[in-house]
Amino acid sequence: MSSTAANVAAVPTLLIALGTLFLLDYRLGAHFSKTWPAVLILAGLLRLMGWGRR
Amino acid sequence: MRRSITTPLLIILLGCLLLARNLLDDFSVWELFAQEWPWLLVAAGVLRLAEHALAAARDEPGPGPLGGGALVLAFLLCCVGSLAHAVDRAVSAEGFGVHWADFGWFDRTHDIPVEGTWPAADVKTLRIEGFHGDLEIVGDGEDSIRLSGSRRVNDSTLERARAASEAQPIRARREGDALELRLQGHSARRFAGDLTVHAPRALALALSEGRGELRVRDFDAPVSIKTDGEVELERVAGAVELELEHGRRVVAEGLGGALTVRGSTREIKVRDAAGPVSIGGKLFGEIEIAEVADLQIRDRRLTLKAPGRVSGQVVLDGNDLSLEGLDGGVELEANGRWEIAAKGLGGPAKLQGQRGSIEVLLDATPPASLTARLDEGEIHAELPAGGDYQLEARGAHVDSDLPDLAGEPDRDLRLVRGGGSAKIVLDAGRGRVRINALP
Questions:
Q1: Is there a contact between A12 and B44 if contact means CB atoms under 8 Å apart?
Q2: Residue burial B77-90, b: 16+ Cβ < 10 Å; e: rest
Q3: Choosing among B41, B80, B155, which should be mutated to test the A contact, i.e. which has the most A CBs within 10 A?
Q4: Do A18 and B70 touch (CB under 8 A)?
Q5: Which of B59-73, B91-105, B193-207 is predicted most confidently?
Q6: What is the pLDDT of residues B251-279, one digit of tens each?
Q7: In degrees, to the nearest 5, what angle opens at C-alpha B323 toward C-alphas B329 and B264?
Q8: B267 φ, ψ (degrees, to nearest 5)
Q9: Cβ–Cβ gap A8/B109 under 8 Å
Q10: Whole-angstrom Cα distance, residue B371 to residue B375?
């Protein structure tokens, strides 16, 4: 993925991930207090793909 | 750079929600937000990605990348949404408070074991107050009351969770011939539990201040429950009284006495009850009642009385009402628009509505009397071509394919078959009546 594409897609992807984790908490009982590090992992992956580079 | 469509769509969504709140009685924007707010994050992300994908496909400049401001807004939404969710879960008419620990994102959930045994030789009533989470109460032949299971405590460490639980022990208190168990302490902090109570089956039960899932089975004496959670009842011989503040689901099977349900709830399923069943209050969602006796349902939208045995079932779902196998007949008064279907009516039937439709299917021996009335809408009846009944049908338009009346549309139709002993009146007011002969 180019750094421009990563810049454009990173924040929306993080928003989707956050929303999904809260929905998993409310619907399936996968408590957000346990699953939140997945957002950090995703942010790291997006960074590796070029998020934040100009 | 193109402007994003996310903001206008959010404004439209907000308008739709507020309009729905103004037009629909049972619609709560607050409740919807508290339960569904994470979809806002998902939708915002998906919309933004879709906009970029569309712009790239058309080789046009897309909206600019979201920056730190969007993440700050998302964080604020998470805070407000989590608070709304915690409050929605915790608030009830009994005044449960909210504790910060209830929505601590970074806490862990610890299961802290709890247990207790109390003699029950001279106890006649068991009262349990303040149950959260899952509670199962099982009747048996022993002469003691035994509680076991665990409390779910959110806290940063196991030690802190254990200390928090021990600071608010389960308290037992004798009051005359009753034993009272309080599962919560005085603090605003509430512990959900996964508890089982075994008690002598002859004890009367009085359960209050509840939320979560409650299951009661194998009791012989009366049971009264006040909760805003889910209730499951199985094999209870005594009378049952349920008072639901914001009940989610009631399932009852194998009841030997009367069942009375009051308050508001989303779903009620009752099967196999020997005593009278009375359901009243604010009902929204699905009601399914089968194999009961002397059924009464009353809320602001309808009043239904089915005396005698209901060998079939009564199903109420939104504006659809289906009546089947009402051996002692039925009396129904419905307000607003309804789609009503009735068959297997064994006694006198009176179905009265304002708008919508009534569909009646009569077999070879119709009930002694049947009256179906609507102010406007359509009444559709399937009648035996032969038989023993007199029929009056009125409406702006009446048509029939009964053998000797086929093709004679009218506003007023009268007909006598055999001795005319059963009396059938179909009155659609400003609407239409359609009569078909049973094959």
A1: yes
A2: bbeebbebbbebbb
A3: B41
A4: no
A5: B193-207
A6: 999 999 999 999 888 889 999 999 899 99
A7: 105
A8: -150, 135
A9: no
A10: 13
Candidates B136, B228, B153, B244; CA nearest to B190 is B153
Task: Using a CB–CB cutoff of 8 Å, tell me whether B118 touches chain A.
Answer: no
**Do B104 and A15 count as a contact with CB atoms less than 8 A apart?**
no
Query: In chain B, what percentage of residues exceed pLDDT 70?
Result: 90
CA distances from A34 to A17, B37, B88 (A): 14, 20, 22
The C-alpha of A20 sits at a distance from chain B's nearest C-alpha, in angstroms, of 7
Shortest alpha-carbon distance between residue B105 and chain A (Å): 4
- Put simply, the answer to whether B74 touches A16 (Cβ < 8 Å) is no
Average pLDDT, chain A: 81
Does the beta-carbon distance from B78 to A15 stay under 8 Å?
A: no
Higher-pLDDT residue of B403, B428:
B428
**Nearest by Cα to B378 from B430, B415, B305, B321:** B430
Query: Distance between CA atoms of B377 and B337, rounded to whole angstroms?
Result: 9
Q: For residue B420, report the phi and psi dihedrals to the nearest 5 degrees.
A: 70, 35
Q: Of B45, B65, B71, which has the smallest distance from its Cβ to A16's Cβ?
A: B45
- Return the pLDDT at B95: 42
pLDDT in tens, B210-257: 888 899 999 999 999 998 889 999 999 999 999 987 777 899 999 999
Dihedral in degrees, nearest 10, Cα atoms B29, B33, B36, B38: 150
Confidence band (pLDDT; 50, 70, 90) for B100?
low
Domain extents for chain A?
A: 3-48
What residues of chain A lie within 8 A of the CB of B154, using their CB?
A: 33
Shortest CA distance to B243 belongs to which of B221, B255, B228?
A: B228
Please check whether residue B345 is in contact with residue B326, taking contact to mean a CB–CB distance below 8 angstroms: yes
pLDDT at residue B113 tops 80: yes
Q: How far apart are CA B361 and CA B245, in angstroms?
A: 37
Q: What are the tokens at B398?
A: 């009446």
Pairing of strands B355-361, B410-417: unpaired
Give residue B189's pLDDT band: very low, low, confident or very high (50, 70, 90): low
Q: Does B85 touch chain A (CB under 8 A)?
A: yes
The C-alpha atoms of residue B232 and residue B252 are separated, in whole angstroms, by 6
DSSP secondary structure string for all residues of B290-302: EEEEEEEEE-SSE
Answer yes or no: are the C-beta atoms of B144 and B157 closer than 8 Å. no
- Tell me: pLDDT of B163 over 70: yes
ipTM of this complex = 0.79
Look at residue B55 in the predicted model and tell me its pLDDT: 82
- Check B78 against A18: CB less than 8 A apart: yes
